[in-house]
Amino acid sequence: MDNRQRLLDCALDLFSRYGYDAVSVREVVEYAGVTKPTLYHYFDSKRGLLDALLKREAGRLLTEVLVAARYQGDLVATLESIARAYFAFAQAHPACYRMQLGMYFSAPESEANQAIRPFTNQQREILEGVFIQAAEDQGNLRTRHARYAAGLLGTINAMIGLHFNDGLVLGEEPIYLTVHQFMYGIFS
Amino acid sequence: MDNRQRLLDCALDLFSRYGYDAVSVREVVEYAGVTKPTLYHYFDSKRGLLDALLKREAGRLLTEVLVAARYQGDLVATLESIARAYFAFAQAHPACYRMQLGMYFSAPESEANQAIRPFTNQQREILEGVFIQAAEDQGNLRTRHARYAAGLLGTINAMIGLHFNDGLVLGEEPIYLTVHQFMYGIFS
DNA sequence: TCCATACTATACCGACCGGTATATTTTGTC
DNA sequence: GACAAAATATACCGGTCGGTATAGTATGGA
After folding, report:
1. Which domains can be identified in chain A, with CATH numbers?
2. CB within 8 Å: B150 and A162
3. Residue B74: helix, strand or coil by DSSP?
4. Which of A182, B27, B54, B163 could form an SS bridge with B58, CB 3.0 to 4.6 Å?
């Protein structure tokens, strides 16, 4: 009965499958079983719908990553915690993660990319913060936190891609392998 | 004077900046200084324009990666050669690589994703082939070639992302660091 | 019971979409 | 220079786009 939530659910499903630009507001409201004025009652525009959707969906991921990324002196354990959070989220909410991934890599001047940028920036800061804090304990990785954060997230997303496309189950083993390869290399 | 090439150039520029779906054929032809029938003389449709563009642009990347990925008994050297090829291409043709990256991560039922899938599949086969061949020499990494190929490409793309967004210069040092971290871990 | 507010539907807007029928110009060949 | 073919322009098509003016209905408080 909550048409606002229903509209967000339907928008998520359609955006994740076809992309924000390729989906019209007509398709969203028909899929949701309502009419356009209902959508425009809750959201000012198509872009407003997207912003509200990201606030709900990307916000969830962000808080889970934020919790998982609290550094407690053990870099390996922290990175495993982060990988676990990403993998769990991607498995629990595949459409949501697909959409965010697609928007992250979408064209830099597209609405979708601009809408998701605040959220990806926060993710980036969280991950870099882990390596900056770890650098206080272990030397060596100073000034490289940006590369490490980007590299880790790139590897995590690569594994999530294998999960989406090839059905790789993202249990404890991939978490262990991902982090240990990152820390100790391919032969670890 | 070659309007066909000019149309492809303009389409690449616009697609890479705004995304395939957000760019209209009107915008392409106006940017190119021609009219629509000229575009439809060379390409059957907007999708045909995209296919021709990918054949030209993604084909270039593919052949360069194919050459770089010839395994010659030294896995580290081969991976460095691959990273060098990707980095060089991304730096020499940023709009082209941006567009391909965006389409690779675009929604699975979008035209853009379907159009680029053959090319990404070939890249994947090339990279997996390297690890499969290397597995004949070194044990250990058998049956994990898919994860290694995905992980390596994920890391490479992460570095290219830092190049695009933060101006990281992709010279020999990032090549060395990327591959050695992949092979031997973060402290190598 | 009255009223304000939140919500939803019908019907419509101008602009733009991808694509084309037709006509004209350029170009290479003999 | 005649002529066919390739290339380009004008003008237009039906359909869909994001968005809205207007009106009606449901709902909860006084």
Report:
1. 3-184 (1.10.357.10)
2. yes
3. coil
4. B54
